[in-house]
Amino acid sequence: MSKGNRFLPHLVAFVVVATWGTTFVFTKLLLLGGLTAAQIFILRFIIAYALLLAYSLMRGIRWMADSWCDELLMVALGVTGGSLYFLTENSAMNYTTTTNTSIIVSLCPLFAAAIIALFYQSERLSRMQTFGTLMAAAGVIVVVMNGHFVLHLSPLGDTLAFAACLCWAFYSLLMIPANKHYDTVFVTRKVFFYGLLSMIPYMIVHPELNIHLLFAQPELLWNLLFLGCVASMLCFLAWNWALKRLGAVVATNYVYLNPVTTIIFAWFILNEQITLWFILGTLLILFGMFLADRRVTS
C-alpha cells in the first residue's frame, strides 16, 4: 500500500483511539449515576449489535461463517475483544490504581507484536521497529505517571489488567485470519453478538440492568448512546477496517496514544493540568510510532 493510500487508515486508527480515550468521562458519569461496569458493557454492546443487525438486514444478512471452525474464530473474537477484555479491565480498577491499569493495558502493542510474530513471520518487527515500539512504551509510562514514579503493586488487580492487555493482543492476532476471509461489518457484528452471548453466565447471577436509571436521568441515556453508537459500533467498525489495511502490529501501536488523548480530553473538559512530563512522553510515543512503522512506509 502506497503512502497516499495509507494516510486514511492511519487517520482512522488515530481518530478511533482518540475517541476511545474520551470514553472514561462518559463511563465515569454512568458509574456515578448508579450503573455497574458490567451493565454499561452489556447495554452499549446491545445498542451496537442492534444497529449493525438492522443495517445487515437492510443490506442482505449473512448469519454464519463458512465453517464451524471460522464460527469458533468469531466466538474467540467476541470473548477477547468484548466480554473478557472489558470485564478484566474494569475489574482491575477495583483492586489496583488507575495508574497501574492504564500503564499495563496501554502496553498491549508490545505483547501483540510478540504474539503475532510467533504465528506470522511476515509481521515480525525489524530492529528499528522494535526500538520504536519500546520507545513508545516508555513514552506511555512517562505520560501516565506524570513525574510521580511510584507504582503500588497489587497482584490481583495488576494480573487482571495484564489479562485485559493479553485479551486485546489476542484479539489483534485473531483479526488477521478473520479479515482475510470476511468483510468488516460481518466480523464486527459477530464480535458484538458473541461478546453479549458470553456474558449470559454473568447476567444469570446479576440479571438487573438498572435501565430505569437512564430514564430518570436523561443525561445518562445520552452518555450510553454515545458509548453504544459511537465508541462501540462506529469505532469497532473503523478499527477493524484499519486493522485490515495497516496490519495488526502497526494499527495496534496506536493504542499507545490512548492515555495521551485521555489526558488532553481531561484538560479540555475537566481543566486538568498538562505538564512537561506529558509533553515529553507524548514526543517519545509519536517518534516511537514513527520508527515502528518505518519498514512498511519506506
* H/E element order: HHHHHHHHHHHHHHH
Distance between the termini: 11 Å
> What class do helices, strands and sheet pairing give?
mainly alpha
Number of helices: 15
Beta-strand fraction estimate: under 5%
Number of strands: 0
Apparent shape:
globular
Overall pLDDT score? 83
Summarize the biggest pleated sheet: none
Provide the helix percentage: over 70%
Radius of gyration, taken over Cα atoms and rounded to an integer in Å: 19 Å
Layout of helices and strands:
Layout: H1 3-32, H2 37-59, H3 68-92, H4 98-106, H5 108-119, H6 127-145, H7 155-181, H8 184-197, H9 200-205, H10 212-216, H11 218-246, H12 248-252, H13 258-270, H14 276-292, H15 294-297
Describe, in plain words, how this protein is organized in 3D.
This protein has helices at 3-32, 37-59, 68-92, 98-106, 108-119, 127-145, 155-181, 184-197, 200-205, 212-216, 218-246, 248-252, 258-270, 276-292, 294-297. With 298 residues, it is mostly helical. Helix 2 packs antiparallel against helix 8 (184-197). It is globular. The termini are close together. The model has no long low-confidence stretch (mean pLDDT 83).
In short:
The chain has 298 residues and is an all-alpha fold. The protein contains 15 helices and no strands. α1 (3-32) packs across α13 (258-270), α7 crosses α11 (218-246) and α8 (184-197) packs across α11.
